[in-house]
Write a structure and sequence with these properties.
By secondary structure, the protein is of the alpha+beta class. 46% of the residues lie in helices and 26% in strands.
């Protein structure tokens, strides 16, 4: 009986750690780009950039864009996103945003806004996994009472 309880606790801790690791991965994959795009849309400066190069395979290529900030400095960044349906060519002018406080944080408007749903989805799934992992680490069972009480 005692061995069965310790085995069960070990399994619960294993799944709790697995859920927490899954949450961490999803937060990094979905949370950072989502927060970056929200910051760019809220505080970003809009400029026109020039695609200088394309990186990646033939099917999905990510553009490398060069732009000039309002203070006259030139920056180059590689887009966080690649898309097989939207093709860029070297020399093409694109509308983009960058953060004036950190110009290396930039994104092409079209690509950043297209990926809002997938980034939001990954961040939400990550938060659900995080909650599941934290609940699993509790020593007490979780009880949800949805009955209506009359006062």
């Amino acid at each position: 009986m005692e061995q069965e309880k310790s085995t069960r606790k070990g399994n619960i801790k294993f799944w709790a750690v697995a859920l927490l690791l899954g949450a961490l991965v999803l937060f990094v994959v979905g949370g950072y780009p989502l927060i970056k795009q929200i910051a760019l849309d809220g505080f970003g400066q809009e400029v026109t950039g020039t695609v200088v190069e394309l990186a990646g395979a033939d099917r999905i290529q990510t553009p490398i864009v060069q732009f000039t900030t309002t203070d006259g400095r030139q920056y180059t960044f590689k887009s966080h996103y690649g898309n097989r349906n939207i093709r860029f060519t070297a020399g093409e002018q694109v509308q983009m945003r960058y953060l004036p406080a950190a110009p290396q944080i930039a994104e092409i408007n079209l690509l950043g806004r297209m990926n809002y749903p997938s980034n939001l989805e990954a961040a939400c799934i990550g938060s659900l996994l995080l909650m599941g992992g934290l609940v699993s680490l509790r020593n007490k069972p979780l009880t949800l009472d949805f009955s209506r009480r009359k006062n």
